[in-house]
Specification:
- By secondary structure, the chain is mostly helical.
- The protein has a domain of about 70 residues: Arc Repressor Mutant, subunit A.
- Helix content is about 65%, strand content about 0%.
- It is built from 19 helices and no strands.
Protein backbone atom coordinates (compact mmCIF):
# COMPACT_ATOMS: atom_id res chain seq x y z
CA UNK A 1 0.00 0.00 0.00
CA UNK A 2 2.85 2.39 0.77
CA UNK A 3 4.48 1.59 -2.56
CA UNK A 4 1.25 2.24 -4.43
CA UNK A 5 0.42 5.44 -2.54
CA UNK A 6 3.91 6.87 -2.85
CA UNK A 7 3.56 8.58 0.52
CA UNK A 8 5.99 8.93 3.40
CA UNK A 9 5.00 8.69 7.05
CA UNK A 10 7.26 8.43 10.11
CA UNK A 11 7.76 4.80 11.11
CA UNK A 12 10.29 2.98 13.26
CA UNK A 13 10.72 0.56 10.36
CA UNK A 14 9.19 0.57 6.89
CA UNK A 15 7.03 -2.43 5.95
CA UNK A 16 9.70 -3.46 3.44
CA UNK A 17 12.42 -3.47 6.09
CA UNK A 18 10.25 -5.55 8.42
CA UNK A 19 9.39 -8.03 5.67
CA UNK A 20 13.04 -8.29 4.61
CA UNK A 21 14.17 -8.88 8.19
CA UNK A 22 11.58 -11.62 8.67
CA UNK A 23 12.67 -13.22 5.40
CA UNK A 24 16.36 -13.09 6.35
CA UNK A 25 15.60 -14.54 9.79
CA UNK A 26 13.80 -17.49 8.19
CA UNK A 27 16.30 -18.31 5.45
CA UNK A 28 14.39 -16.65 2.59
CA UNK A 29 16.99 -14.24 1.24
CA UNK A 30 15.38 -14.30 -2.22
CA UNK A 31 12.13 -12.93 -0.81
CA UNK A 32 14.08 -10.23 1.03
CA UNK A 33 15.69 -9.18 -2.27
CA UNK A 34 12.36 -8.99 -4.07
CA UNK A 35 10.69 -6.92 -1.35
CA UNK A 36 13.60 -4.51 -1.00
CA UNK A 37 13.99 -3.92 -4.74
CA UNK A 38 10.27 -3.17 -5.09
CA UNK A 39 10.36 -0.79 -2.12
CA UNK A 40 13.40 1.07 -3.40
CA UNK A 41 11.91 1.38 -6.88
CA UNK A 42 8.70 2.81 -5.41
CA UNK A 43 10.51 5.12 -3.01
CA UNK A 44 8.87 3.54 0.03
CA UNK A 45 9.45 5.66 3.11
CA UNK A 46 10.99 8.50 1.15
CA UNK A 47 14.64 9.50 1.14
CA UNK A 48 15.12 8.88 4.86
CA UNK A 49 14.34 5.16 4.43
CA UNK A 50 16.63 4.55 1.45
CA UNK A 51 19.92 4.05 3.32
CA UNK A 52 18.49 1.34 5.56
CA UNK A 53 16.76 -0.44 2.68
CA UNK A 54 20.00 -0.46 0.72
CA UNK A 55 21.93 -1.73 3.74
CA UNK A 56 19.47 -4.59 4.22
CA UNK A 57 19.82 -5.35 0.52
CA UNK A 58 23.59 -5.46 1.05
CA UNK A 59 23.12 -7.86 3.97
CA UNK A 60 21.01 -10.18 1.84
CA UNK A 61 23.66 -10.13 -0.90
CA UNK A 62 26.47 -10.79 1.58
CA UNK A 63 24.58 -13.67 3.14
CA UNK A 64 24.22 -15.20 -0.31
CA UNK A 65 27.94 -14.65 -0.92
CA UNK A 66 27.47 -11.96 -3.57
CA UNK A 67 30.16 -9.61 -2.32
CA UNK A 68 30.12 -7.33 -5.37
CA UNK A 69 26.37 -6.77 -5.11
CA UNK A 70 26.73 -6.14 -1.39
CA UNK A 71 29.34 -3.45 -1.95
CA UNK A 72 27.25 -1.81 -4.67
CA UNK A 73 24.29 -1.64 -2.29
CA UNK A 74 26.52 -0.19 0.45
CA UNK A 75 27.70 2.51 -1.95
CA UNK A 76 24.09 3.33 -2.81
CA UNK A 77 23.23 3.57 0.88
CA UNK A 78 26.05 6.01 1.49
CA UNK A 79 25.16 8.10 -1.60
CA UNK A 80 21.46 8.15 -0.70
CA UNK A 81 22.15 9.72 2.66
CA UNK A 82 22.36 13.49 2.81
CA UNK A 83 23.37 13.46 6.46
CA UNK A 84 25.28 11.03 8.73
CA UNK A 85 23.78 7.57 9.12
CA UNK A 86 21.74 6.95 12.24
CA UNK A 87 23.68 5.01 14.91
CA UNK A 88 21.74 1.78 14.24
CA UNK A 89 22.36 2.04 10.48
CA UNK A 90 26.01 2.89 11.06
CA UNK A 91 26.18 -0.22 13.25
CA UNK A 92 24.63 -2.28 10.45
CA UNK A 93 27.16 -0.85 7.99
CA UNK A 94 30.06 -1.68 10.35
CA UNK A 95 28.82 -5.26 10.69
CA UNK A 96 28.57 -5.52 6.91
CA UNK A 97 32.19 -4.43 6.58
CA UNK A 98 33.17 -7.09 9.12
CA UNK A 99 31.14 -9.78 7.37
CA UNK A 100 32.57 -9.02 3.94
CA UNK A 101 36.12 -8.96 5.29
CA UNK A 102 35.59 -12.27 7.10
CA UNK A 103 34.28 -13.95 3.98
CA UNK A 104 37.06 -12.42 1.91
CA UNK A 105 39.68 -13.91 4.25
CA UNK A 106 41.64 -10.65 4.40
CA UNK A 107 42.89 -10.60 7.98
CA UNK A 108 44.18 -7.03 7.85
CA UNK A 109 40.86 -5.73 6.51
CA UNK A 110 38.99 -7.81 9.08
CA UNK A 111 40.95 -6.32 11.97
CA UNK A 112 40.34 -2.77 10.71
CA UNK A 113 36.63 -3.45 10.21
CA UNK A 114 36.43 -5.04 13.64
CA UNK A 115 37.89 -1.96 15.33
CA UNK A 116 35.34 0.24 13.61
CA UNK A 117 32.53 -2.12 14.60
CA UNK A 118 33.63 -2.05 18.24
CA UNK A 119 33.26 1.71 18.18
CA UNK A 120 29.87 1.56 16.42
CA UNK A 121 28.45 -0.90 18.94
CA UNK A 122 29.07 1.58 21.75
CA UNK A 123 26.43 3.90 20.24
CA UNK A 124 23.54 1.43 20.01
CA UNK A 125 21.41 -0.66 22.28
CA UNK A 126 19.98 -4.08 21.46
CA UNK A 127 16.70 -3.92 19.57
CA UNK A 128 14.53 -6.49 17.86
CA UNK A 129 15.31 -5.32 14.33
CA UNK A 130 19.09 -5.16 14.69
CA UNK A 131 19.91 -8.69 15.81
CA UNK A 132 21.59 -9.98 12.63
CA UNK A 133 24.66 -7.71 13.02
CA UNK A 134 25.24 -9.07 16.52
CA UNK A 135 25.44 -12.61 15.14
CA UNK A 136 28.11 -11.61 12.63
CA UNK A 137 30.09 -9.82 15.32
CA UNK A 138 29.76 -12.78 17.68
CA UNK A 139 31.44 -15.05 15.12
CA UNK A 140 34.17 -12.54 14.32
CA UNK A 141 34.91 -11.95 17.99
CA UNK A 142 35.51 -15.69 18.39
CA UNK A 143 37.74 -15.80 15.33
CA UNK A 144 39.84 -12.87 16.56
CA UNK A 145 39.85 -14.12 20.16
CA UNK A 146 38.08 -10.93 21.21
CA UNK A 147 34.97 -12.44 22.82
CA UNK A 148 35.81 -11.18 26.29
CA UNK A 149 36.05 -7.61 25.04
CA UNK A 150 32.47 -7.71 23.75
CA UNK A 151 31.04 -10.23 26.18
CA UNK A 152 28.86 -7.71 28.01
CA UNK A 153 27.24 -6.64 24.73
CA UNK A 154 26.52 -10.26 23.80
CA UNK A 155 25.15 -10.93 27.28
CA UNK A 156 22.72 -8.11 26.61
CA UNK A 157 21.67 -9.74 23.34
CA UNK A 158 20.91 -13.08 25.02
CA UNK A 159 19.12 -11.36 27.90
CA UNK A 160 16.97 -9.48 25.40
CA UNK A 161 16.06 -12.70 23.57
CA UNK A 162 15.37 -14.41 26.89
CA UNK A 163 12.79 -11.76 27.71
CA UNK A 164 11.09 -12.62 24.40
CA UNK A 165 10.97 -16.29 25.35
CA UNK A 166 13.75 -17.12 22.90
CA UNK A 167 11.26 -16.65 20.05
CA UNK A 168 12.48 -18.85 17.14
CA UNK A 169 11.87 -16.22 14.45
CA UNK A 170 14.42 -13.90 16.01
CA UNK A 171 16.68 -16.27 17.94
CA UNK A 172 17.48 -19.05 15.44
CA UNK A 173 20.09 -17.07 13.41
CA UNK A 174 21.70 -15.92 16.67
CA UNK A 175 21.94 -19.50 17.95
CA UNK A 176 23.56 -20.51 14.65
CA UNK A 177 26.08 -17.72 15.17
CA UNK A 178 26.62 -19.06 18.68
CA UNK A 179 27.35 -22.53 17.26
CA UNK A 180 29.90 -21.13 14.82
CA UNK A 181 31.52 -19.00 17.53
CA UNK A 182 31.79 -22.02 19.85
CA UNK A 183 33.35 -24.10 17.07
CA UNK A 184 35.90 -21.37 16.38
CA UNK A 185 36.63 -21.07 20.08
CA UNK A 186 36.84 -24.86 20.46
CA UNK A 187 34.32 -24.67 23.28
CA UNK A 188 32.04 -27.72 23.60
CA UNK A 189 30.41 -26.15 26.65
CA UNK A 190 29.63 -23.02 24.66
CA UNK A 191 28.23 -25.08 21.79
CA UNK A 192 25.75 -27.20 23.77
CA UNK A 193 23.07 -24.60 24.66
CA UNK A 194 22.92 -23.22 21.11
CA UNK A 195 22.74 -26.68 19.56
CA UNK A 196 19.96 -27.62 21.99
CA UNK A 197 18.05 -24.43 21.16
CA UNK A 198 18.24 -25.19 17.42
CA UNK A 199 16.97 -28.73 18.00
CA UNK A 200 14.05 -27.42 20.06
CA UNK A 201 13.18 -24.82 17.42
CA UNK A 202 13.35 -27.46 14.66
CA UNK A 203 9.79 -28.55 15.49
CA UNK A 204 8.45 -25.22 14.23
CA UNK A 205 11.23 -23.82 12.03
CA UNK A 206 12.61 -25.28 8.80
CA UNK A 207 15.67 -23.03 9.07
CA UNK A 208 16.35 -24.29 12.59
CA UNK A 209 16.22 -27.92 11.42
CA UNK A 210 18.70 -27.16 8.62
CA UNK A 211 21.05 -25.34 10.99
CA UNK A 212 20.78 -28.07 13.62
CA UNK A 213 21.83 -30.65 11.02
CA UNK A 214 24.69 -28.41 9.89
CA UNK A 215 25.89 -27.96 13.46
CA UNK A 216 25.84 -31.74 13.96
CA UNK A 217 27.80 -32.18 10.73
CA UNK A 218 30.43 -29.64 11.83
CA UNK A 219 30.91 -31.44 15.14
CA UNK A 220 31.31 -34.80 13.39
CA UNK A 221 33.84 -33.33 10.93
CA UNK A 222 35.92 -31.75 13.68
CA UNK A 223 35.81 -35.02 15.61
CA UNK A 224 37.07 -36.87 12.51
CA UNK A 225 34.03 -39.18 12.44
CA UNK A 226 31.66 -38.24 9.65
CA UNK A 227 29.81 -39.63 6.67
CA UNK A 228 30.36 -37.73 3.44
CA UNK A 229 26.67 -38.12 2.55
CA UNK A 230 25.58 -36.48 5.81
CA UNK A 231 27.97 -33.58 5.33
CA UNK A 232 26.85 -33.09 1.74
CA UNK A 233 23.19 -33.05 2.80
CA UNK A 234 23.96 -30.48 5.49
CA UNK A 235 25.99 -28.32 3.11
CA UNK A 236 23.28 -28.34 0.45
CA UNK A 237 20.71 -27.58 3.13
CA UNK A 238 22.64 -24.47 4.13
CA UNK A 239 22.80 -23.34 0.52
CA UNK A 240 19.06 -23.88 0.08
CA UNK A 241 18.35 -21.51 2.98
CA UNK A 242 20.45 -18.69 1.54
CA UNK A 243 23.73 -19.61 3.23
CA UNK A 244 25.91 -20.95 0.37
CA UNK A 245 29.18 -19.64 1.83
CA UNK A 246 28.59 -21.59 5.04
CA UNK A 247 27.63 -24.68 3.04
CA UNK A 248 30.72 -24.55 0.84
CA UNK A 249 32.93 -23.95 3.87
CA UNK A 250 31.50 -27.03 5.63
CA UNK A 251 31.96 -29.24 2.58
CA UNK A 252 35.46 -27.92 1.91
CA UNK A 253 36.59 -28.44 5.47
CA UNK A 254 35.21 -31.98 5.49
CA UNK A 255 37.01 -32.71 2.21
CA UNK A 256 40.28 -31.78 3.90
CA UNK A 257 39.66 -34.46 6.52
CA UNK A 258 38.19 -37.18 4.31
CA UNK A 259 40.01 -40.50 4.58
CA UNK A 260 38.74 -41.82 1.25
CA UNK A 261 39.72 -40.09 -1.98
CA UNK A 262 36.25 -40.55 -3.44
CA UNK A 263 34.77 -38.76 -0.41
CA UNK A 264 37.20 -35.88 -0.83
CA UNK A 265 36.28 -35.50 -4.51
CA UNK A 266 32.57 -35.75 -3.70
CA UNK A 267 32.74 -33.08 -1.02
CA UNK A 268 34.84 -30.76 -3.16
CA UNK A 269 32.29 -31.10 -5.94
CA UNK A 270 29.57 -30.29 -3.43
CA UNK A 271 31.43 -27.18 -2.29
CA UNK A 272 31.76 -26.08 -5.90
CA UNK A 273 28.08 -26.72 -6.58
CA UNK A 274 26.67 -24.80 -3.62
CA UNK A 275 28.95 -21.80 -4.03
CA UNK A 276 27.23 -19.16 -6.22
CA UNK A 277 30.19 -18.37 -8.46
CA UNK A 278 30.99 -22.03 -8.92
CA UNK A 279 27.40 -22.80 -9.86
CA UNK A 280 26.97 -19.77 -12.10
CA UNK A 281 25.26 -20.47 -15.37
CA UNK A 282 27.20 -17.75 -17.10
CA UNK A 283 29.96 -18.60 -19.56
CA UNK A 284 33.43 -19.14 -18.10
CA UNK A 285 36.02 -16.41 -18.58
CA UNK A 286 38.24 -16.69 -21.69
CA UNK A 287 41.20 -18.25 -19.94
CA UNK A 288 39.00 -21.07 -18.67
CA UNK A 289 36.55 -21.47 -21.55
CA UNK A 290 36.45 -25.01 -22.89
CA UNK A 291 38.24 -26.47 -19.88
CA UNK A 292 36.74 -29.69 -18.52
CA UNK A 293 34.77 -29.13 -15.34
CA UNK A 294 37.24 -31.21 -13.35
CA UNK A 295 40.00 -28.81 -14.33
CA UNK A 296 38.17 -25.69 -13.23
CA UNK A 297 39.40 -24.25 -9.99
CA UNK A 298 37.19 -24.54 -6.94
CA UNK A 299 35.42 -21.28 -6.16
CA UNK A 300 36.14 -21.72 -2.47
CA UNK A 301 34.15 -19.97 0.27
CA UNK A 302 37.12 -17.88 1.35
CA UNK A 303 38.20 -16.85 -2.14
CA UNK A 304 38.91 -18.61 -5.43
CA UNK A 305 41.82 -20.26 -7.18
CA UNK A 306 41.53 -17.87 -10.10
CA UNK A 307 44.41 -17.01 -12.38
CA UNK A 308 45.65 -13.93 -10.59
CA UNK A 309 49.39 -13.55 -10.59
CA UNK A 310 50.03 -17.08 -11.81
CA UNK A 311 51.21 -18.84 -14.94
CA UNK A 312 48.50 -21.51 -15.21
CA UNK A 313 44.94 -22.32 -14.18
CA UNK A 314 46.04 -22.97 -10.61
CA UNK A 315 47.34 -19.42 -10.24
CA UNK A 316 50.68 -20.74 -8.93
CA UNK A 317 54.08 -19.92 -10.32
CA UNK A 318 56.48 -22.77 -11.20
CA UNK A 319 58.44 -22.18 -7.95
CA UNK A 320 55.22 -22.19 -5.92
CA UNK A 321 54.21 -25.47 -7.52
CA UNK A 322 57.53 -26.95 -6.41
CA UNK A 323 56.91 -25.75 -2.88
CA UNK A 324 53.30 -27.00 -3.02
CA UNK A 325 54.39 -30.54 -3.89
CA UNK A 326 56.80 -30.58 -0.97
CA UNK A 327 54.12 -29.22 1.38
CA UNK A 328 51.81 -32.04 0.32
CA UNK A 329 54.60 -34.50 1.12
CA UNK A 330 54.58 -33.18 4.67
CA UNK A 331 57.93 -31.41 4.50
CA UNK A 332 58.83 -28.72 7.04
CA UNK A 333 60.01 -25.27 5.96
CA UNK A 334 63.61 -26.34 6.64
CA UNK A 335 63.22 -29.53 4.61
CA UNK A 336 61.59 -27.62 1.74
CA UNK A 337 64.50 -25.17 1.76
CA UNK A 338 67.07 -27.94 1.68
CA UNK A 339 65.26 -29.68 -1.19
CA UNK A 340 65.11 -26.68 -3.55
CA UNK A 341 67.96 -24.57 -2.15
CA UNK A 342 66.04 -21.71 -0.54
CA UNK A 343 65.95 -20.50 3.05
CA UNK A 344 63.26 -21.76 5.46
CA UNK A 345 61.98 -18.18 5.72
CA UNK A 346 61.57 -17.97 1.94
CA UNK A 347 59.72 -21.29 1.98
CA UNK A 348 57.41 -19.91 4.66
CA UNK A 349 56.75 -16.81 2.54
CA UNK A 350 55.88 -18.98 -0.47
CA UNK A 351 53.37 -20.98 1.62
CA UNK A 352 51.79 -17.83 3.05
CA UNK A 353 51.43 -16.35 -0.43
CA UNK A 354 49.83 -19.54 -1.78
CA UNK A 355 47.43 -19.60 1.14
CA UNK A 356 46.28 -16.05 0.39
CA UNK A 357 46.05 -16.67 -3.35
CA UNK A 358 44.06 -19.87 -2.98
CA UNK A 359 41.81 -18.41 -0.30
CA UNK A 360 42.59 -21.04 2.36
CA UNK A 361 41.64 -20.09 5.92
CA UNK A 362 43.79 -22.76 7.56
CA UNK A 363 46.34 -25.46 6.78
CA UNK A 364 43.74 -28.17 6.17
CA UNK A 365 41.98 -26.07 3.54
CA UNK A 366 45.34 -25.16 2.01
CA UNK A 367 46.21 -28.83 1.53
CA UNK A 368 42.90 -29.49 -0.24
CA UNK A 369 43.35 -26.51 -2.54
CA UNK A 370 46.95 -27.45 -3.31
CA UNK A 371 45.84 -30.95 -4.31
CA UNK A 372 43.33 -29.39 -6.70
CA UNK A 373 45.85 -26.88 -8.01
CA UNK A 374 48.32 -29.66 -8.80
CA UNK A 375 45.67 -31.88 -10.33
CA UNK A 376 45.60 -34.42 -7.52
CA UNK A 377 42.00 -33.79 -6.51
CA UNK A 378 40.34 -34.69 -9.82
CA UNK A 379 38.12 -37.74 -10.09
CA UNK A 380 39.60 -40.67 -11.96
CA UNK A 381 38.81 -40.82 -15.71
Amino acid sequence: MMNAAGTSIPLLETPAALAALCALHTGEAGIADTVLKAALAAGQGGNTARPRLFLLQAWSAMQQDNADEARLAINEAVKANHWPLTPRDDFLLAALDVGLARRGSEVHELVLAWERAREAMMHVSVDLFSLLPWGELMITAARLRETRRVGHYLDGVWHFLGRLGDAPLWSVPLHWAGVQAALLGESPAGLAPHAAALVRASEHSHLASVLAAAGKAWVSVLAGRFEASDVETAARGLASTGLPWEGARLAGHAAAHAEERRDMVRLLACARDVHPQGASASAPPPERAGAPQAEMSLQAPAGDFGTQGGHDLSGLSPREREVARLVLEGKTYREIGEAIYISPRTAEHHVARMRRRLGAENRSELLVRLRLALGEGHPPP
